[in-house]
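Amino Acid Chain and Its Fold in Token Form
===========================================
Purpose: to set a sequence beside its fold so the mapping can be learned.
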Amino acid sequence: MAADALSDVLRTVRLTGATFFDVIAREPWVAEQPTREMVLPKILPGATHLISYHVVTQGHCYAATLDGEAIRLDAGEVVVFTKGDPHVMSSSPGMRADPVAPDALDGVDASQLPFFVNHAQHGPPTSKLVCGFLACDAAPFNPLLANLPPVIKAGGSPDTDTSWLGEFIRLAMAESTAKRAGGESVLAKLSELMFIEVVRRYLETLPPGQTGWLAGLRDPFVGKALSFLHGNAARNWTIEELAKDAGLSRSALAERFVDLVGMPPMHYLANWRMQIAAGLLSSGTNIANVAAETGYGSEAAFSRAFKKMVGMPPSAWRRSLERNGSGLTR
């Protein structure tokens, strides 16, 4: 059974929308992103990876990592910082603000969405933004995050390229203004959908010679092989069987897979099984069942494989999750 590998990864790594900011600003203005260490414990308890996004709903602004070039954003455009790197949002390029105070988020209550941020104290705003955070599991194996650039910009003309993003903005603003029951969940899901759309657009713009997991998804043969592996990760695959299903010879698929994805198909399968296992362990599934669901003939064989990749036995992994708390449980 083939699967949509991108959807499978997004589901297994538990992409989760978390919070939401409604920002108005008047030139000149500048704001620095709180650090990952500040945001994750207070807004996304237990999360392991932070993704930040900003959607411009009026005017324009600039976005830049602390050591990167400024990117101009106009109304209807979105920028996503896929690795949660510190960055600056401003009315002009090259501006810097004072670092965010360590206690700046102490009063934040995720149940009171959206958080309103006013940088337009003395007149009508020249820019409006919708900003937020997403979280997901980065370990033990997240091929999507590992292959995304640190910064992605998407969008364009509101009448053509950004119709979907424009709809996201409209719905998000309506939910944040109305404050209806269930609004927090709606805003979180809208953020997840926005991120998925940005990833799909990035995938569509990859140049022909690009390598990496996303390029592999787009390749007709490697993409098919990835779909088969994701569709039945517990199967006792061989490279011969996978190549036959993908429509290539054994040697051709092996070479093509390594060239694009960066590892042999069976190595990829072993890594992906550990990601599935981590999710099952975090949900409370007993180790014997986890072993069976990830294609291992015994609990001992699974435990050895898990420890080899993750660095600790499955039972220790589960205890570490319990100690740290998991903010991503659905």
